[in-house]
Write a structure and sequence with these properties.
Length: 157
Protein backbone atom coordinates (compact mmCIF):
# COMPACT_ATOMS: atom_id res chain seq x y z
CA UNK A 1 0.00 0.00 0.00
CA UNK A 2 1.26 3.45 -0.91
CA UNK A 3 0.84 6.25 1.60
CA UNK A 4 -1.31 9.10 0.35
CA UNK A 5 0.58 12.17 -0.83
CA UNK A 6 1.18 14.68 1.92
CA UNK A 7 0.80 12.28 4.84
CA UNK A 8 4.50 11.57 5.30
CA UNK A 9 5.74 15.16 5.70
CA UNK A 10 6.43 14.63 9.39
CA UNK A 11 8.77 11.72 8.57
CA UNK A 12 11.04 14.01 6.55
CA UNK A 13 11.86 16.12 9.59
CA UNK A 14 14.89 14.97 11.55
CA UNK A 15 14.04 16.91 14.71
CA UNK A 16 11.26 18.83 16.36
CA UNK A 17 11.13 22.61 16.09
CA UNK A 18 13.12 25.07 14.04
CA UNK A 19 16.77 24.36 13.29
CA UNK A 20 19.05 26.75 15.22
CA UNK A 21 20.20 29.71 13.14
CA UNK A 22 23.74 29.48 14.53
CA UNK A 23 25.06 25.94 14.58
CA UNK A 24 28.45 26.87 16.04
CA UNK A 25 29.75 29.54 18.43
CA UNK A 26 31.94 30.85 15.59
CA UNK A 27 28.84 31.42 13.44
CA UNK A 28 27.27 33.45 16.24
CA UNK A 29 30.49 35.41 16.87
CA UNK A 30 30.86 36.27 13.16
CA UNK A 31 27.24 37.45 12.98
CA UNK A 32 27.71 39.53 16.15
CA UNK A 33 30.85 41.10 14.63
CA UNK A 34 28.75 42.08 11.61
CA UNK A 35 26.36 43.84 14.01
CA UNK A 36 29.26 45.62 15.75
CA UNK A 37 30.56 46.82 12.36
CA UNK A 38 27.05 47.90 11.31
CA UNK A 39 26.63 49.97 14.49
CA UNK A 40 29.90 51.83 13.82
CA UNK A 41 29.10 52.31 10.13
CA UNK A 42 25.59 53.63 10.84
CA UNK A 43 25.76 56.36 13.48
CA UNK A 44 22.65 58.22 14.51
CA UNK A 45 22.29 61.65 12.92
CA UNK A 46 21.37 64.89 14.62
CA UNK A 47 20.42 67.98 12.66
CA UNK A 48 22.17 71.05 14.03
CA UNK A 49 22.12 74.70 13.11
CA UNK A 50 25.47 76.36 12.44
CA UNK A 51 26.00 80.10 12.13
CA UNK A 52 28.65 81.17 9.64
CA UNK A 53 29.17 84.71 8.32
CA UNK A 54 25.61 85.76 9.13
CA UNK A 55 24.05 82.69 7.55
CA UNK A 56 22.40 79.85 9.42
CA UNK A 57 23.22 76.48 7.92
CA UNK A 58 21.50 73.23 8.91
CA UNK A 59 23.67 70.15 8.76
CA UNK A 60 23.63 66.59 10.04
CA UNK A 61 26.13 65.61 12.70
CA UNK A 62 26.87 61.92 13.34
CA UNK A 63 26.25 60.68 16.89
CA UNK A 64 27.45 57.44 18.41
CA UNK A 65 24.90 54.64 18.26
CA UNK A 66 24.91 52.52 21.42
CA UNK A 67 25.09 48.77 20.98
CA UNK A 68 22.30 46.91 22.74
CA UNK A 69 21.34 43.29 23.24
CA UNK A 70 17.92 44.01 21.72
CA UNK A 71 19.59 45.69 18.76
CA UNK A 72 21.85 42.67 18.31
CA UNK A 73 18.90 40.27 18.45
CA UNK A 74 16.96 42.39 15.96
CA UNK A 75 19.98 42.49 13.62
CA UNK A 76 20.45 38.71 13.92
CA UNK A 77 16.70 38.16 13.37
CA UNK A 78 16.30 36.20 16.58
CA UNK A 79 14.20 36.82 19.66
CA UNK A 80 15.73 37.71 22.99
CA UNK A 81 14.46 34.38 24.33
CA UNK A 82 16.40 32.60 21.57
CA UNK A 83 19.53 34.53 22.56
CA UNK A 84 18.87 33.46 26.16
CA UNK A 85 18.64 29.84 24.97
CA UNK A 86 22.07 30.17 23.32
CA UNK A 87 23.36 31.64 26.58
CA UNK A 88 22.17 28.54 28.47
CA UNK A 89 23.98 26.27 26.01
CA UNK A 90 27.40 25.44 27.46
CA UNK A 91 28.99 25.38 24.00
CA UNK A 92 27.97 29.01 23.41
CA UNK A 93 28.66 30.42 26.90
CA UNK A 94 32.14 31.76 26.09
CA UNK A 95 31.10 33.54 22.90
CA UNK A 96 28.00 34.97 24.62
CA UNK A 97 30.25 36.35 27.38
CA UNK A 98 32.50 37.97 24.74
CA UNK A 99 29.50 39.53 22.99
CA UNK A 100 28.18 40.92 26.29
CA UNK A 101 31.64 42.31 27.12
CA UNK A 102 31.90 44.09 23.77
CA UNK A 103 28.46 45.68 24.21
CA UNK A 104 29.15 46.67 27.84
CA UNK A 105 32.55 48.16 26.96
CA UNK A 106 31.21 50.12 23.97
CA UNK A 107 28.44 51.67 26.06
CA UNK A 108 30.69 52.35 29.07
CA UNK A 109 33.43 54.00 26.99
CA UNK A 110 30.87 55.98 24.98
CA UNK A 111 29.34 57.35 28.17
CA UNK A 112 32.75 58.03 29.74
CA UNK A 113 33.75 60.05 26.66
CA UNK A 114 30.42 61.93 26.80
CA UNK A 115 29.38 60.49 23.43
CA UNK A 116 26.36 58.76 24.99
CA UNK A 117 24.05 59.93 27.77
CA UNK A 118 25.89 58.86 30.92
CA UNK A 119 22.72 58.71 33.06
CA UNK A 120 20.91 56.36 30.70
CA UNK A 121 23.94 54.16 30.12
CA UNK A 122 24.87 53.92 33.81
CA UNK A 123 21.34 52.77 34.66
CA UNK A 124 21.35 50.26 31.81
CA UNK A 125 24.72 48.88 32.90
CA UNK A 126 23.68 48.79 36.56
CA UNK A 127 26.24 51.43 37.52
CA UNK A 128 23.85 54.03 38.96
CA UNK A 129 25.02 55.71 42.15
CA UNK A 130 23.54 54.24 45.27
CA UNK A 131 22.88 56.63 48.14
CA UNK A 132 23.75 55.39 51.63
CA UNK A 133 20.64 55.92 53.74
CA UNK A 134 21.88 54.30 56.94
CA UNK A 135 23.23 56.32 59.82
CA UNK A 136 26.04 55.30 62.14
CA UNK A 137 23.55 53.73 64.54
CA UNK A 138 21.98 51.62 61.78
CA UNK A 139 18.73 53.56 61.46
CA UNK A 140 17.40 54.23 57.99
CA UNK A 141 17.80 58.02 57.92
CA UNK A 142 20.23 59.93 55.71
CA UNK A 143 23.47 60.69 57.55
CA UNK A 144 23.07 64.41 57.08
CA UNK A 145 19.59 64.35 58.60
CA UNK A 146 20.86 62.22 61.49
CA UNK A 147 23.57 64.83 62.18
CA UNK A 148 21.02 67.65 61.91
CA UNK A 149 18.84 66.09 64.61
CA UNK A 150 21.88 65.44 66.83
CA UNK A 151 23.05 69.07 66.54
CA UNK A 152 19.68 70.54 67.52
CA UNK A 153 18.78 68.03 70.20
CA UNK A 154 15.62 67.11 68.31
CA UNK A 155 16.63 63.62 67.33
CA UNK A 156 13.56 61.43 67.15
CA UNK A 157 13.73 57.82 68.19
Amino acid sequence: MVAPVGNSFWKQRSSHGRKPIFSTPDDLWNAACEYFEWVEANPLKETKAFHFQGTVIMDEVPKMRAMTMMGLCFYLDIGTSTFHDYKQNEDFSEVIAKIEQVIFTQKFEGAAADLLNANIISRELGLADKQDLTSSDGSMTPKGLDDFYADYGKKET
